[in-house]
Amino acid sequence: MITLTSYLFISLVLFLVGVMVMLARKNIVAILLGIELILNAAALNFVAYSRFVTNNLDGHIFALFIILVAAAEAAVGLAIVIRFFQIKETIHIDEATQLRN
Amino acid sequence: MLEQLLISASFYIPELLSILLMCFLLMAEASHSMENEHGSRDKIYGLGIIGLLVILGACIFNFTKAPTAVFYNAVIIDPFSTLVKIIMVLGTLGSVYLSRSSKDIYTNLKSEFMIMSVGVLIGGMLLASANNMLTLYLGIETLSILSYVMTSLKRDDATSAEAGIKYALYGGLTAGVMLFGMSHIYGQLGTIQFAEMVTKLSALEGQSFVVLMISFLMFFTGIGYKISCFPFHMWSPDVYQGAPIPVTSFFSIVPKMAGIAVLIRVSMIFFGTGSAIAVTWIGLLHVIAAMTMTVGNVTAIGQSSVKRLLAFSSIGHVGVMMLGVVVLNEVGVQAILFYGIVYMFMTLAAFYITSHLSDMYGTDTQDVFKGLIYKHPLMAIVMVGVLFSLAGVPPFSGFVAKFNIFSVIIEKKYYGLAIIAALNSVISLYYYMRLAKTIIFGEADSEEKVPGFTGLNQTIIFVMFVPVLVLGVFWESIMNISGYAKIFIR
Amino acid sequence: MNGLLNWILWLPIIGMVGVLLTPKAKENAARYVTLATTFITFVLTLILWCKFDNTATTMQFAVKFPWIESFNINYSIGVDGLTLPMTILNGLLFFLCTLSSWTVEKSVKSYFALILMLQASVFGVFFSLDFFLFYVFWEVMLIPMFFLIGIWGGENREYAAIKFFLYTFFGSIFMLVGIIALYYATGKGVDSFNILAHQGGKFVAEQVVIFGHSFSFEHLFFWFMFLGFAIKVPIFPFHTWLPHAHVQAPTAVSVILAGVLLKMGTYGFLRILYPIFPQAANDYSTIVAVLGLISVIYGAFCAMAQDDVKKLVAYSSVSHMGFVMLGIASMSTQGMTGAVLQMFNHGTSTAMMFLLIGILYERSHHRWIVRPDGSKGFGGLSTQLPKYTTVFIIGMFASMGLPGLSGFISEALIFLGMYNRFTTITVIAVVGLLIGAAYLLWMFKRMFFGEVNPDCKEYEDMNAREVFYMVPLCIIVIVFGIFPSPLLNMMKVSVGQLVDLLAKFA
Amino acid sequence: MEYTFSNIAPIVLSPIIAFVINAFFGRKLPRQGDWLATLSIFVSFIFSLRIFLDFTGTFATDFYIHKFFTWFDLSSGTQVFKVDMGIYLDNMAAIMLLMVSGVATLIHLFSTWYMDGDEKQGRFFVFLPLFTSAMLALVLSDNLLSLFIFWEIMGFCSYSLIGIYVKKEKAGDASLKAFMTTRVGDVFLLLGIVAIWMVIGSVSYVDIYAAIATGKFDGLTVLGMSFATFTAGCIFLGAMGKSAQFPLHVWLPDAMMGPTPGSALIHAATMVTAGVYVSLRMYPLMVLGDITWFIAVIGAITAFGAATVAMVQTDIKAVLAYSTLSQLGYMMIGVGVGSYNAAFMHVITHAFFKACLFLSAGSVIHSVHEQEMPKLGGLRKYLPYTHFAMMCCTLAIAGIPFFSGFVSKDRILGDALYYGFMSGQNPLLAIVPILGFAGAGLTAFYMFRMMFLTFYGKYNGNDHHDDHGHGHDSHGHDDHHGEPHHEHLDARSNVPLLLLSVFTIGLWFSGSLTGQGIVNVFGGKTEWFKILVEAPKVEKFVDHSKEPLASTDTRIKSELPHAHYHHQSGYFGPNPDEHKLHKAHTIGAIASIIIAFLGVFIAFLMYIKHAITPLAARFPGLTRTLQNKYYFDNLYIDVFIKKGLLNLNKFLSWFDSGLYDRYAIDGWAAVNRVCFKSAKWFDNVVVDAVGVDGTGVAVNLFNLVLRIVQSGKIQFYFMVLIVVLASYIWTI
Lengths: 101, 490, 506, 732
Hints:
The complex is a heterotetramer. By secondary structure, chain B is mainly alpha-helical. Helices cover 76% and strands 1% of the residues of chain B. Chain B has a domain at 302-490. In chain B, strands 1-2 form a two-stranded antiparallel ribbon. The longest helix of chain B is centred in the middle third of the chain and has 32 residues, at 158-189. The radius of gyration of chain B is 22 Å and the shape is globular. The longest helix of chain C has 32 residues, at 333-364. Chain C has 21 helices and four strands. By secondary structure, chain C is mainly alpha-helical. Chain D folds into two domains: 5-143 and 305-628, no CATH class; 681-732, no CATH class. Chain D has helices at residues 5-25, 34-57, 91-114, 121-140, 144-162, 169-200, 205-213, 227-242, 251-254, 260-269, 271-281, 283-288, 292-312, 316-337, 340-368, 384-398, 404-422, 431-455, 491-502, 507-510, 528-532, 578-607, 615-618, 620-627, 632-665, 667-690, 697-706, 714-731; strands spanning 63-73, 82-89, 221-222, 225-226, 554-556. In chain D, the strands form two sheets. A three-stranded antiparallel β-sheet of chain D has the order 2-1-5. A two-stranded antiparallel sheet of chain D has the order 3-4. Chains in contact: A-B, A-D, B-C, B-D, C-D. The interface between C and D is large, with 55 and 54 residues.
């Protein structure tokens, strides 16, 4: 029987994995993917809560919006990454350290 | 149903207008002819500025209206949000005009700047009057996503692109964290409407507080990142430095004001009533505000790049404004709004002068200010005045703003915070005066005039400086206006 | 009648606008406009003195109308016995300084505009009866000083200017916290920013909590405001901005700095700190007295070691302001009167010294008593410059307090006031008089006696203009040394009120 | 008779008017206005004479006070604080006024000759009248404050007169030394005045006397000593400074850097006597404070020490300067041992003969342009008047009978003898009479040494006509001996000398004007001086002081002193045994006569007959010590000032600017900058050196932890964010 707890557990795992990806991976695209993971974790939470706890549609709508925004964000992010690649010919995150004290 | 929407729309004119304006600008951009770039860009600018002025008018018209919640409580229109919107529109106007003359943005991209600034403005407006978590999230994202693009508007410039990437990634992370927190809040309280959440909150008790507190922290992460307060400030210096100067000035006004607005609203709604978790929250705000001021000012001391210096100083100013949030009452809001208005004028003037200078020299180190007093005495005096005002020296309005903030925290008897703020203003005076010193006492390497300072530009800069000076002496009217701009909770 | 004070306060601003409007080509225009403005202002202050009623116990010529009504901030000004001497001094010194800075060549217009702005702000500080107004003028005064030192100063001017600005700002920002605290302690009422309404120990019972520790409101904010004023005076641990500022500043500015700006600090003690916190004033009087004593002795010793004559005089004013602090700390009629009188007398005598040093500097372009290489900077000046020497002797003996010249009465009164409260400190403080005579006479001996230095041979004596602006000071120094009663009667009533007020809390 | 402002003020004002006129228009006046100065002093002499006759006419010891005006008034509400200026006249003041104005007139007259054509003539005649008027006002003043004011003005005048030849570095040093040394005493005098004022409530003499009588001084302690001792000590310190008593004596010998008439005025009439005058005025306080023994000892040391130093001086003015020191010592002995009127009489007698001596020395110097005694000699026939006057004065100062000096000094010595041996005091105080008598002998010796070296024997100076070329030193060969070039002395120089020498006759002072019998040289009881001048009997003032200074014209009669005339006793212990006292006087008189003649005889043998080798040859070590004035100057200048004070100043100013200011004040800015720089350094060097390759979270974490704020690495920003959040969460 699948309960709310399992959903929450899955989403928590997703969240942590996303964070770790963002911390550890050097590939910018991978880091963008990490963001997606985190967003999905949040979306999953919303849906699960609206299914099990609050019997209203707010959660679902929220999830939809999240997906939508995530798409836009990913698009913009990738565009910038491409620009960065055009200039630097790399997408290694540690190349992006020109701006500092 | 329909007339419900229409009624709501009647309150929602400024936002609708700006959306309309954005669409027009997009079409104009699409239809602009390759052979006559210049003219078409002028068209776009003209259209944009006129539109912004109209929006401004609509906001002012809205200001006196009775506060209402529209679109099924999703959005709330009250004098507070409207005043914030006015500030944001003014800021947008200022940076748009600056972008026109600035060499920092590649000519082909100027119209993009125009369009996207309006987009960011829409996001800010949405944020300023958000009444539930969804609108808040949408506002932040609208604000952010377009900001990423604006940051990397410099073509073929590594730093700009890098700044864009950092901004995007950092924004993404914080947005994600915020959403995660929101989701748990939704789970605990069962609604996304602020007003209902408050009632639930007061009814709630037991161990779910822990979860709720954590969730609120995550929630705050998103806002804190927008206003770039400690510890979420670290993206801003890099982004400010990487972005073109008009964008920087734009960022240091519009998103910050929106973020501050939403922070005030959320804090007032959730914790103004003195609910169970309010105490912890206020303690947290104490620490954050103090740290933000201190980190911003202390780090600013070492900066050679003026853009970066202004970025850090803006962090310091956000810290000061947060003092007004800490007290969680209407006078605090009043003080913050006054501060916002004054800060907008000061920042614009400072960025205008910096931009024209760095256009001439191609860099924005403090040395470009050397001997300004001999080349352009008026500009030098304005800049020095603005710097003094930023530091909070009478008779400039910056002092009055600081005075109000001080008075609200001292009214609450937060003397510790007051002392920290006092020390901070001394530190800030120190680095502002090192810049002022360069302006006045530094010997110019060359006698050639700064091309940017045409008569018109100087006039505009001076016009921006006038309120900085006048509001320092006759500030009651503005205080009353910002006092009138109360927060409406529904 | 009541408009008189407004005129005195705002005439310099009008003059400033006039100076800014003068054509750039004609520099003399700016000079003459400034001269006219300062002269009329001076005459107005004299008229003020004539109309002043020595026996009145309230503020005179008071003007008051609301400025920021929602905060109960008023534009309210007035004068009483404590203010009037400073007012006259201010009017006089700026007039003389305008004459003395006739030779300024570097961007004349802005120089004189700033001088006039400075005068207005100083007047404002002395006239203000509203805390907000007071603070605004107090801070505004920094801006022209910053530029005057920083642009027209000596070789190390930028450091001095920034140091002066930061130091004072540091003190005054704490004062601001205190002012706002007072505003709320009186419940934001109609008089919450009214300086006079706060007086009389209204806050003895109040308590405040900082970081969980509870303090007495009165004692805490006594120190907050003390910081603001003590830095301005300056008292011993806060004095280090003074030598830099004085040495780097142009002549006129050091005259004004020593003549009136330092007095703003002690004026703050008399008008604000002590009347508002009388309990704390009584409790801490010993600390203040000891600090004053240290300033006297320490300043005098430091002065003795200086090779730069201007620095010597700068340290000497640390020492003399220490006497003022001693008089204030004594809280007796004689001591307080002596303090106010000393504020006036030190204003005139130190002004003389700085003006004279400026005159000499215009001829020699250095200020070394003993050059770093050990050779004499000057020598035999009294043979070379007889007129100059005469005036110098008068100024020197006045500032060392020779009877018959103005300095003596104030110092004697201060000692009289101190004796009963701090006998031991009095006994030590007389040593200050001794050293005070020592460094001045030693400096005089090294500069004026002996054969004329070869490089002093071509100095010419004071010209008519210089004589013209030195003579009034000489006359004042001598006349008020012989007949002090006009000044004393002026301040008698106000000082008496203050002393009685403080005596209630002893 | 009435004393009003109109007939008192001219005494002080006429010289001041002369001062003002000379100060402003001196250069334009003929002869730089010296005649004006002289005239003005003469005017005050006339008015003083009037007062003198009025007071001495009636043989009463009464006093007269008159309040002229309130200087300033701080009385507010309850407490009264006002300063009244007035005059206090009694016999002592009257005599003093006459002496000061008379001597000063003669000195002015002499100066008109001496300073004629001098480059500083104008300036000299600016300060001379001011000096005199200050002294006169000091004598007239009725309270300690006004006394202090004129006291200081005199200090200023002496500063200007001593340093009048500004081109001489030594003049500068001397004037600085004079002012500073006296200033040491002055500040303590001021302290004493302040203390008395704040405790007694007034500083007028009558109130102080009354306070002493009514015991207001008793029972108070200051700094561990009784209040009376404290105030008396402070006032006496002031007197020590002005009258150049032992530790503060160093300024007086150097004071001869000024023109000789100026020295005459300082040494004889005005400045140095002020110290004795104030200690006489405050005599009851000195007694109450029980410091008379101290005064006596200080006086004795000064009297003897100065005399020893004077023996070896070769500069004629130096000899006179040290003789002044020594005589002042005798006056202080007189104050100390309680022979009040003898001390005062010595002030007067000394004023006359010392003025005369200095003027004579001046005429010698001015005419021969030489003041080193070895280069003088045999001037008797060239300067007969000068020789005559100087000889009279020398006899007087040496204490030869029938001369004024004897009358006063002998009585002081007699009282000292009683005080030291018979009055049952501490036996150690026997040192006072011993030193006193020894000093008297030495005085006779060195004064006659001076006379012999100057006026007798052969002229050893250089003839000014061939004073060029082949450098012949001072005691050259015979062909250089002979006619000294000297100016003709006219009346302006001779008349003052002769007039002054007239007053060296003892009769003037010891005589009895009541017409009873002939002169009693051996200290009889009926001399006018003794009758007129007596120590203030404080009880007299009590009833008067009920309204301090209120009464504008008070003249308190006391019955003629013959009725119960006492030696000024009651101040040390019970009334002295008249018999013993008389015995002491007789012994003292005889002894002093013997000693004086002994001194003269030795001098005669040494310098006329050359029978005895002079001291210098005999005790070279001792002589060197004496010539260096016991090394006091070296002690003060080299040790205290140069080694001590100046180094202290240097240290303090270094501490102020170099240490305190640099680190404590500018420190915080530096700290900020350093923090910032080090962070940058850490980031650039450490972090990038360690390097970052993205293998494994652990390594990353390790490096990320190392990174400093604003390293520019976005992932570190994430890290901080997460860490901070986690820590927040942890706290909850």
